[in-house]
Amino acid sequence: MRYQRIAIFLIGFILILLLLLSYKSKKNSQFKEFRSDEGRLTILMPGKPQRETQEVNTPAGIVKMVMYTAESKEIICICAYTDYPQQHINLVDSNTILDGAMNGAVNNIKGKLINQKSFEFHDLPARDIQMEIPKQAFVDLRFILAGERFYQLMLIAPGDKGHQQDIAKFFDSFKIDGVN
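Structure (tokenized):
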């Protein structure tokens, strides 16, 4: 499915970051506000994020995914977005898109889904997901569909305890321009 391809890329990226994190010892960073005019977003990140782009081949054609990644000593935060052609988004209901992203993320890393919750993020369809990568990490994800733009937030931590404040700070700070 088209959204599983994006999830595959992100999960591969996550695994590489986990390996780097296990070998790196960085000074613990404080969360700082990050703004992307191009992404039409503002979010708190643990340090200055690195921007990367990836072209992803989907049934809707080739789309560009933009990712911002920042890390501290114990966590990795990723804020990503992808724009799809509006006519393609109109053909699929939002739950199908969110289900596809969730299932792709869990299945492609052979993760264990711990919890998932559908909700509205300022009247936009959204989904929070918690999963475990067995014996490696815990991943908290938030997917938000804002028209043709699909936002993905990820916080990756080595354990499931002690990061609730970081998760709340990261997710709760996310703002989309023009969405209240």
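The longest strand covers residues 61-71. The chain has a mean pLDDT of 85.
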